[in-house]
Protein 1
Amino acid sequence: MHACPPNLPRRESTAERRVAIGLAARALIIEKGVEGLRTRDIAERVGINIATLHYHVPTKEALIALVAETIRHDFRAQAMRRPRDGKTGLEVLRLEFEEFREIVTETPELIIILTELVERGRRDPVIGEIMLPLYDFWRNQFVDIFRLGIRDGSFRPDVDPHAAALIVTGTLSDFWRAWTDFSASIDAVFTQLEHAFTPPIALQG
């Protein structure tokens, strides 16, 4: 039996290389925006040549799709830490709020990248084809939450799930952007959103 030669560097798998490319692209988007996304800079950060980079992401569309894939992976991993099974619509909504708070405080780069790409996707059909469905997927998650809450009684029966989803996602998006000095605490925002959709508390006595 022959021993393996010592100290040989381990070759990255294709999946690992793609993750490294996606993360390098994300870092450049944060630093320079989409317009500053250059294949030469990505290859340099990953430590590969341009030919290898183009093997993994041969087009602009493939590069943006890879970035979107890494974003979906991060959001999915976050959601899996907080199981939804057996919870009411209101409880699931609160989990979504906690995850938003977590992203804002711990990984704000996720929202920076998502916002940058969604806004660019409104003008660039290549980016839009990839990113706008991802944004609508987020909205549809809230549609499902409101439908669940209407069924279990944790939300008012007259709530329109699609309108409510637009209200919540629009509010969270605007909170993140913070266009002006006008502001409110994140807890106050969450509380007001809950009050907008939950049944009124019966008066006591």
Protein 2
Amino acid sequence: MSERLAPWLQQQLTTLLAQRGHAWLLQGPSGLGQYRLALELSQAWLCETPTPQGACGRCGSCHAIGVRTHADLCVLMPETVMMTLGWPLGEKAQTEIDAKKRKPSREIRIDAMRDAVEFSQRTSARGRGKAVLVYPAERMNHVTANALLKTLEEPPGDVRFVLASEAAHQLLPTIHSRCLAHTMAWPREDAALAWLAEQGVGVVQAAGLLRAAGGRPDDALQLQHSGLDLIAWSRLPVAVARGDAGALAGWTPAQGVDALQKLCHDLLAQSVGAAPRYFSAADLPATPTAALAQWSKELARSAGMVEHPLNAGLMLEALVSQARKALNSKP
């Protein structure tokens, strides 16, 4: 890849390359670099002149991955994710989407999985083996996941798999059992702040973004790209306690639920004497644990509806109303 790999990811890459295995599951919460590590691992496997630290970044194989045309790399992602990350869709899928016959899929489609199984059975084009990268692996439904199982257990020839997940608990137990698990490492705060500085984030802003992201640097960078107002973020607990729907103005339902789940997490942590992760303790109102537990359940239900809300504005107002009720509950 073109830019320098974050040091905590480089350490994990070196460790993974020193181990044997044909199928890896990289697991952990979002923002820890699962996709980047999976891609670097795949590139190192296919590199013409690899080192113990990874791919050379200069050979024909590395160039082919950089321009998204490597014949021996199969990328399995939801179409929405592929488009976001710059991976080309298949000709048929692109034609259907361009003609507005359907929307890009948010799940890994069964026909894409069948293509991947067929890919795994072909001879390597460059002679360095083949790699299948699945991300986010939790976006496989049961039918798609089951289509992968036999190939994952008994891979033909020299194919290797790397599955990257931000919600590994949603994967089938049979997927877990066929992979070597690697839990993503959390970077130290100083290392994460230094990396954010390398990405052009100011010192003060980086610290605030890293807190809002719960210490996960990739998520912190995404928050900056989305234009998160750190002052408004610090005022969010008081605003929703007042029932101020404007606190979520301009947010998508998914962003609103995510922010309120972070707030609920911190309030629950504080209620049992633990340190908050996403907000400053000084910004958090005292709230009864029972009310927070009920609110957490309501937010979990809302999370299942955010992709297809009937009315985004009304859903955000309902979310603030739920928050106001929970934060103003009496012991």
Protein 3
Amino acid sequence: MRWKKLRYVFVNSMSDMFHPDIPPEFVLKTFSVMRESSSEYGHIFQILTKRPGLAVKWWQEHQDDFPDGWPDNIWIGTSVESQKYAIRVKVLARLPAAIRFVSAEPLLDRLDLTPWLTDGTLQWLIVGGESGPGARPMSLDWARDLRDQAADAGVAFFLKQLGGKNGKRSGANAILDGRTWQEYPG
């Protein structure tokens, strides 16, 4: 609440707000603080979960605590690292957030998100390779394909990192076809 300038906050960047061991009351308190901070400064909070089904269940049980609906400053996304997990997007679509997104990171295979990019389910697509010892390679063609899917649907595309065993190649070093791709919805 002391931040005076707009900030983007990745909530629980190393964990999952909707892990089964997180008490629903903690999630409610966290959502309440995020909602309150939006009124004065407009901070944007990004929540990423591998468990959109638990997020839907939580929302169904607590939506009455939010008479104005899902706060616009709380964006929610799910991880989809391969087509096997794309079903998570169908579940994510049940949440009434203004901004829903996919983090295809680490991207492990070719991925088709066209149905959810074109039907308005997704407003943002983040892509990144795996990094560190034992990192599995990400094909630049997979990233290009997702970039093109997002562009065709008018959805913001953010290439976070290319990944690799020796460095993430992130930020200004995440170059695809001669440029960085750091778009935000909006």
